[in-house]
Amino acid sequence: MNLNHHELGPKGTKAIAIALVSNTAITRLELEENWMMEEGILALMQMLHENYYIQELNVSNNHLDYAGAKIITDFLLENTSSLWSIQLAGNNFKDETAHMFYNAFVSNYRIKVLDLSHNAFSEKGGEQLGQMLVLNEGLQTLDLSWNQLHLRGAVSLCYGLRNNTTLKTLNVSWNGFGNEGAQALGDALRINSTLAYLDISNNHMNNEGANKVARGLELNENLKVLKMSQNSLTMEGALALTSSIKRNPKSRLEELNISNVLVTEGFVKQLEGLYHAHPELDVIYGEVVGTISKSVILSSPLKAIKAYVDKKNITVFDFFKEIDHLGTVKMPVGEFRKALTMQTKVPLNRIQIRELIKKLDPDQTGIVDYRVLQEPEYGISPNDRKGNNTTRKNEEEARNKEAYTKVL
Questions:
Q1: How far apart are the C-alpha atoms of 62 and 88, rounded to whole Å?
Q2: Which of 15, 128, 200, 384 could pair with 392 in a Cys bridge, judged by C-beta atoms 3.0 to 4.6 Å apart?
Q3: Contact assessment for residue 103 and residue 77, using Cβ atoms and an 8 Å cutoff
Q4: H helix intervals, 252-296
């Protein structure tokens, strides 16, 4: 149920809450930016005492302030609802509320996704939230971007990461960690064995900070995505990061985003060697200096694949099944990139592969689902349409049978 940006106010929110007390169909409730304030969030929490069907709740940007934080954390302390995801971004939560979240999440093991971005936590609040990570045994995704955690908050959070065994996704972009915070992050990455996604974009780090993060990457065996764009890195920092991956044969990194860093042609050539050792990796960098800036026109990757399959009298879907060594229609992004890089039937460059991944994983779930390529627009080649191809007939019969089963 999506009622984002509807200006419900406290009374409108209360009316919605009353209607949902006995509802058993809605599992996700979106109420962002509705000026619900203290009265509205109280009504929602009272409703959730009775409704055990709602699992995801978005109440971001609702002027909840201190009183709202108290109501929410008191409810979460009970640890009895079916909620596993709660978005609380932009609610003017300050350091005075951090101990409430600490108390709630030290004991709450049901919430898996917590969004506290765009609030007003500073170093003191960051210390509390970091201590919470040490003891929490439920969170898998935590978004603290666009706060003001700075050095002390960074150090505390990273200490939490050294001890936490459940968190997989952490976004701490726009928090002013600086190079000292980068040191704490590097130390945490050497030890942490669960974090797979880390966003530290725009954190006032320079090449010194990149070198400190790189030392962590040399030993890390689990991180898959590292976003470091909008930091003050140059080629020196970029080389430190990529060299650390090269020195780590057990690295599982699939994406390194340093998209604002200007690189040289020599750096690009060095990446080819890195890609050979880590074909699942994609390094996203800025422009290449010393070359004429111009838009590069590339053929659509799907068109290139379609041209190949038409010649072979097979379908696009068949092509992907052939390179899918996992034997499924869903592949982790890294495995998918690796498969496309290593196949030789249709030469594709990194930019084309990146475009294809965006198309097949538009929500950035980390999983490519190529079942969409069974659709008619991708499927049967022109040669198939002309003849009475037995394979085509069998495939059509299978699709018809599947459609018929769905109708039943």
A1: 9
A2: 384
A3: yes
A4: 265-277
Whole-number Å distance between alpha carbons of 110 and 87:
14
Count how many residues are written for the chain: 408
Q: Which residues pair with 263 in a beta bridge?
A: 288
The upper half-sphere exposure of residue 406, i.e. CA atoms within 13 Å in the direction of its Cβ, equals 6
Strand partners, 114: 86, 142
pLDDT tens profile 383-406? 443 443 444 445 555 555 554 444
Residue 369: its H or E element: strand 367-369
- Output the pLDDT for position 376: 65
Look up tokens 């929500």; give the residue: 363
**Dihedral, CA atoms, 339, 345, 348, 350, nearest 10 degrees?**
20
H/E run at residue 332: strand 330-332
Tokens 């040289």, residue located: 264
pLDDT in tens, 258-295: 999 999 999 999 999 999 999 999 999 999 987 655 44
CB 137: neighbour CB atoms within 10 A?
A: 12
Residue 85 near residue 56 (C-beta atoms within 8 A): yes
Of residues 374 and 286, the one with the higher pLDDT is 286
**H or E element in which residue 134 lies:** helix 123-135
Read off the pLDDT band of 217 (50, 70, 90). Answer: very high
- Show the tokens assigned to 253: 């990194």
For residue 183, is pLDDT > 70? yes
The answer to whether the CB of 241 falls within 8 A of the CB of 213 is yes
Q: Mean pLDDT score of the chain, rounded to an integer?
A: 91
Q: Which of 192, 186, 187, 226 is nearest to 209 (CA)?
A: 186
CB atoms within 10 A of CB 11: 12
pLDDT at 117: 98
φ/ψ (deg, to 5) at 146: 60, 45
Tokens for 8? Answer: 């419900």
Question: By CB neighbour count within 10 A (0-12 exposed, 13-18 middle, 19+ buried), where does 181 fall?
Answer: buried
Report the candidate in 6, 50, 1 with the shortest Cα–Cα distance to residue 29.
Answer: 1
Residues in CB range of 58: below 8 A, 6 or more apart: 4, 29, 30, 31, 32, 86, 87
Integer distance in angstroms from the first to the last C-alpha of the chain? 28
pLDDT for res 292: 58
Q: Is the model's pTM score more than 0.85?
A: yes
